[in-house]
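Support case: zinc ion complex. Customer-provided input:
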Amino acid sequence: MLTRRNLILGSGAAATSGLVLAPGAARAATGSIALPDDLDTERLITVTNAPTRRNLVAMTFDDGPHPTYTPTLLDILKKRRIRATFYVIGQNVARYPDIVKRMVDEGHEIGNHTWRHPFLSQLGSKSVLRELDRTSDAVYKAVQRMPVTMRPPYGALSRRQRAMIHKEREMPTILWSVDPEDWRRPGSTVVASRIVGGAKPGAIILSHDIHSQTVKAMPAALDGLIDKGYRFETVSMILGQRDWTKLRWRLPTADSRDS
Ligand SMILES: [Zn+2]
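Agent response - structure generated as follows:
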């Protein structure tokens, strides 16, 4: 079951139990993710960038997997030995589980981007959780791992909803600090230059692996970032957490889902 104790990427467990988690100790004792101690409570619930001065960025790709663009992107990442995070849509995971498997096999992280990509801000809590749980189930089925972070479609999630998701599923809402607006299809050169130009230490960079322009922009974008001295980590890693695949996630119980 999805307990507070084994699902820690936020402050919920520490705050509700009165425990102060020493990062290393918590990892060793429970296998759960320890808390970065330099994030305030609000930022554990909502993350736009990582608090680091190191030249690290997290590439994130939303809305896939796409049957052809995503494998092409995976080739581009593999060639550069770059790890990224994919905020996948549950329906697409059910359709293309082998691509999700490949993502994980090649060191990428899978995040939850809902089942059918609705405006979550227009849904009640129960429907929001159902969107997330259905997607986590599909990811688990494909790779035997659960996403540990979520990203709301269109970034549309109220503060109250972000707190609710954090409380009920221990998932931080991951937004972004660099948006090349690739979905508007401004051309691959523009997408690449916006990404390279917008990057700062700790940046979380938004893109979509369902557009050919975006994938076409990636060699120049990634090489541009490499030339500026940036290295790449997944979202969990850049937030100072363990590799997400090392965590012992469990599926939510029927009880926790209906609550
Ligand atoms: Zn999306």
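The longest strand covers residues 56-62.

Case will auto-close in a few days if no follow-up is received.
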